[in-house]
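Hmm, how's this folded?
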Amino acid sequence: MSMMYYPKSIKNFNPNNRLCIKCIRYCSTASNDNQTFKDKLNDGPQLEDFLAGSVSKYEGKLKLEKGENTRLRLPPWLKKEIPVGENYARIKSQLRQLKLATVCEEARCPNIGECWGGGDHGIATATIMLMGDTCTRGCRFCSVKTAKVPPPLDPNEPQNTATAIMDWGLDYVVLTSVDRDDLPDGGANHIAETIKQLKKRSNIYVEALVPDFSGNHECIETIVKSKLDVFAHNIETVEKLTPFVRDRRARYKQSLKVLESAKKFNPELITKSSIMLGLGETDKEIETTIKDLREVGVDALTLGQYMQPTKRHLKVIEYVTPEKFKHWQDFAMNLGFLYVASGPLVRSSYKAGEFFLTNILKERKNKQIEEHGVI
């Protein structure tokens, strides 16, 4: 759940210094130059530059053998600094004032210090998580709080979220949410209203990472008809591991049908999914999962390393090397995805992917205007 920051000069770009990705980004007032936030993004390295990075060979143990009860040591490419700094404190304060939850905190993202701290270039990032901070499901990889009946939805959240995002002056945002199986519509109308509030205020591109709504097609249609630009739903892991990794209500084939349904409601909609590696899956199972996603029309795919959030959660079975992630990127691109981001600290969404998808969406809009004279 993270994003990447891109320095102005690729000469100094380090592919290991990644910011929290699945996030809403805004330009910090602490920046010392006159460049706009959009200019900083455009001037930075692109997806190919990030994926081309290399890491020195690691001699430590990367995979647990069957029956081993120890924990793997963290390889160097996954180590992060403790969150500190003025930007970090300011963002946390702003989000609390608006009563907005962030997946950065709830999911214990390893990149939160760099994201919220803003780094040397003054760019800070955070992710809004809709419908509160408590989920009705208990996936074994996720540290978000769970309860059978979480607190009621905040009716002001859609407007507060839109207000915050508009103040940050973004071109593209990513929204995510908890699961709310306690609600008749799973929270679909609440998410849709947030998207509508954003669209009413500007021409911002909106990506929504949504639950499976227990496979309810009406809920999926509600999200699609909110006029979002990218419909995201994560498959998370391979089919064999799904019952052990995800909540039992989250089924592999059900997730595929959710993504397929979104495409049927709007064939022009970009759909997106994500896979975690390092939970004990085989290469063959990864290949099958990637193919399954492409067969239901998924356009964008991310692959990242599973990180154990606490000792109560599933152990990491394997730390996948950057070279192996590059292999999966090549494999998936050859199947015809619009874009694939694959790396140890890649999460569902991040700047490189968002910038790439923004360009695709702009090209489509311009083509529609040329052909029909309307958007």
Observations:
- Confidence is low (pLDDT under 50) at residues 1-32, 49-55, 114-125.
